[in-house]
């Protein structure tokens, strides 16, 4: 390629892009988002190789892995470099700590088997953050990817938790819109009060609604939600009126 630098780099880029698609087809379709071909993962590193990129003096650079995907976080040197608040995440895959906030040695692990489906959703949000913010380097051979860069059974399991978590999240968000939380206040003189308005529970809407106690199967206690249709609420066994408060009242005083 000597003397034909531009043509040569274009060819190399095209070749590596097609190789990357060949070797990481699933990767591409699952988590690529709006990534360009230059950002496709290229390298396979083992954890020992990854540890050489911890940003310490004499290290090869600053990489960090999450869910087995490696990113060059050099642009975030203030966070990940020596003295940075998140330096301990450099040179390793500490996926679990992104959710637990446990930055001790035992907490900085890629074993995410203790996470709930909703926590797995939050972890993939972090993955998306790194994909959008930093340059992709490749994959770590180990818990999430095999020596050939294919997803392990463990990753497939985590992905099934992700799907479950996304469904749960959608359901919860739907419920939050249908039953937004009430406004509430308490004073020693007047005691507690819950009420509904066209904005409560972080939801702006065209209806005011009436306060009801919402019970969840398997959970103890209830929370106050605003319900649009007072009569329909009567048919829902999980919704209960407040004692001493009329069916159509938008505000209820809490009786001890
Ligand atoms: C589970 C707990 C937490 C995790 C895993 C976490 C992780 C991170 C990471 C990885 C970054 C760097 C992001 C980047 O590359 O730009 C960051 C930035 C930051 N974190 Fe946290 N964090 C946690 C809790 C907190 C808490 C409790 C606070 C505040 C009291 C906080 C304050 C900040 C701030 C202010 C930045 C941005 C700093 C800047 O841009 O200069 N974090 N966090």
From TrEMBL:
Q: Which InterPro entries match?
A: Cyt_B5-like_heme/steroid-bd (IPR001199), Cyt_B5-like_heme/steroid_sf (IPR036400), MAPR/NEUFC/NENF-like (IPR050577)
The record's listing under Pfam families reads: Cyt-b5
All copies of the Cytochrome b5 heme-binding domain together span 45-141
Q: Which residues cross the membrane?
A: 6-25
Gene Ontology CC terms, in alphabetical order: endomembrane system; membrane
Q: What does this protein do?
A: Heme-binding protein which promotes neuronal but not astrocyte differentiation.
Q: What is this protein's record name?
A: Neuferricin
Q: Which organism is it from?
A: Hippocampus comes (Tiger tail seahorse)
């Amino acid at each position: 390629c000597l003397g034909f630098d531009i043509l040569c780099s274009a060819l190399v880029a095209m070749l590596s892009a097609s190789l990357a698609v060949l070797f990481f087809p699933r990767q591409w379709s699952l988590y690529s988002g709006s990534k360009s071909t230059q950002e496709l993962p290229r390298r396979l590193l083992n954890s020992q190789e990854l540890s050489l990129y911890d940003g310490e003096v004499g290290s090869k650079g600053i990489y960090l892995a999450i869910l087995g995907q490696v990113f060059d976080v050099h642009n975030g040197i203030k966070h990940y470099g020596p003295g940075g608040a998140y330096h301990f995440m450099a040179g390793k895959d500490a996926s679990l700590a992104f959710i637990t906030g446990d930055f001790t040695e035992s907490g900085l692990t890629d074993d995410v088997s203790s996470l709930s489906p909703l926590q797995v959703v939050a972890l993939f949000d972090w993955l998306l953050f790194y994909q959008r913010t930093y340059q992709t380097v490749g994959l770590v051979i180990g818990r999430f990817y095999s020596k050939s860069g294919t997803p392990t059974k463990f990753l497939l399991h985590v992905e099934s938790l992700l799907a479950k978590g996304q469904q749960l999240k959608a359901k919860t968000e739907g419920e939050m819109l249908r039953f937004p939380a009430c406004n509430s206040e308490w004073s020693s003189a007047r005691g507690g009060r819950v009420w509904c308005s066209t904005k409560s529970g972080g939801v702006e809407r065209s209806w005011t609604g009436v306060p009801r106690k919402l019970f969840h199967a398997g959970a103890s206690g209830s929370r106050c939600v605003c319900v649009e249709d007072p009569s329909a609420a009567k048919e829902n066994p999980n919704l209960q009126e407040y004692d001493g408060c009329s069916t159509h009242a938008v505000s209820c005083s809490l009786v001890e």
